[in-house]
Amino acid sequence: MTHYTRADLDMADRHIAQGERHIVQQEQLVTSLRLKQLPTAAAEAQLVTLNATLVQHRTHRAAIAEALDAALNATGRRSGPDANLPSCT
Question: Which of 4, 40, 66, 70 could share a disulfide with 8, CB 3.0–4.6 Å?
């Protein structure tokens, strides 16, 4: 079983944000190449790869979040939107 920490979740969030920035930059490059009537095949192929990588980052982040949530629930600590509310029991 893999044990994750909040630092792992934070790193996944950074990877997602960075991937999103790279995609925006690549889309801008493709647009620029098109406007200049230059070949776009390589830039478009790279965009496909960047999008696929972003999907992997999001999947990995979801797995980390799920594992952290399961670990919190196993210790009896609540998580989610009501985690900081006092218990009614």
Answer: 4
For the chain, the average pLDDT equals 89
Q: Is 80 left (phi over 0), alpha (psi -120 to 50) or beta?
A: left
Range 43-72 average pLDDT: 97
| pLDDT for residue 84 | 47
Report CA-CA distances (Å) from 19 to 16, 23, 26, 52, 56. Answer: 5, 6, 10, 10, 10
How far is Cα 67 from Cα 15, in angstroms, rounded to an integer?
18
Tokens of 33: 């190449």
